[in-house]
Amino acid sequence: MGKKHVEVWERCLTVIRDNVPNQSFKTWFEPIEPVSLDDNILTLQVPSQFFYEWLEEHYITLLRKTIKKELGNGGRLEYSVIVDNATNETKPYAVNLPASNKKDTLNRAVSMPIDLNRGRSREIPNPFIIPGLKKIKVDSQLVDTYSFDNFIEGDCNRLARSAGWAIAENPGKTAFNPLLIHSNVGLGKTHLAHAIGLQVKNNFPEKIVLYVKANEFINQYIDSVRNNNQNDFIHFYQMIDVL
Fold first, then answer.
1. What phi, psi does 220 have (nearest 5°)?
2. Is there a smaller number of Cβ atoms within 10 Å at the N or the C end of the chain?
3. pLDDT tens digits for range 7-53
4. What burial class does residue 92 get, using C-beta atoms within 10 Å of its C-beta: 0-12 exposed, 13-18 middle, 19+ buried?
C-alpha cells in the first residue's frame, strides 16, 4: 500500500506521455515526484512555484483527466511545492497547494512578418557585420566550447537546460520566448546561452544568431541615440533570428 501513489503516478505518466511532445514530457513531467495518496488525493511534488504555475496554466486539464481515469471521478490532485528562499540559514521547504478548477490555456506561437527593407537606402553600420559581403552576415559572438555536450546538468539547472534545448530545436516556436533565467553565479547561465545559440546554428544554418552582453546592447543603443540613427539599430536587430 505504501507504494500505491508511485504506481498510480506511473500509470498516469504512461497516459500523459502519449499526449504531449517528448521534450515537454521530459521538461514538465519527469521532474515530478509522487508523494502520497490519501483519501483519493494524489500529492505530487514539483521543484518550484514557477513549475507549479506552468502546470496549472498549460497542463491542468490533462492532469485532471488522467488522475480521474486512474482514481475515478473522486480523484483529486494536490501539489507539494518546493520553496527555496535562497538564504544559507534556511533550508528549502515544501508548501502544499491544491489544484485549481480552471482550464489550461495554450500558448500558441504568433507569426508577425516584418519588411526589413522598407525605408532602407544604405547598408546598416554595425560592428557585428562582416565587411565586403552584400548579404548581411553576423559574427555570432558564440564560444564554441560552451555547448550542450559539456554542459553540467544538475537539479538546480535541469529545467533551464530543458527549456534551452527546446528553444534550440524549435526557435521562436516555443512558449519560452523570451527565455529569462535568474540564478546565483556559477550555475551555467552563460554556458547555456551559448549552447542554445550553437545548437540553433547547427540545426538551422540559415538563421542569424547573435550573442550580445546586456551592457554592449545598451551602449549600442545609447550610441544610436547620440548619432540619431535609432532606425539603423532597430533594423539591425530585427534581422537577428535568435538573440
1. -60, -40
2. N
3. 999 999 999 999 888 878 888 898 889 999 888 889 998 888 888 88
4. exposed
Helix/strand/coil for 220: helix
**Looking at the domain assignment, is residue 187 inside a domain?**
no
Structural domain includes residue 49: yes
pLDDT higher for 215 or 100? 215
Least Cα distance to 44 among 26, 60, 20, 23 occurs for: 60
- Cα separation of 85 and 116, whole Å? 45
Residue 82 lies in a domain: yes
Half-sphere exposure at residue 209, Cβ-oriented, CA atoms within 13 angstroms? 23
How many domains does one find in the chain? 1
Task: State pLDDT tens for residues 85-101.
Answer: 555 555 555 565 566 55
Would you say the C-alpha torsion 191, 196, 197, 202 has a positive or negative sign?
positive
* Residue in the structure block whose three cell numbers are 532602407: 120
CATH number at 79 reads 3.30.300.180
The Cα 208–Cα 128 span in angstroms is: 12
Smallest CA-to-CA distance from 241 within 130, 148, 116, 103 is with 116
200 in a domain, yes or no?
A: no
C-alpha cell of residue 85: 528562499
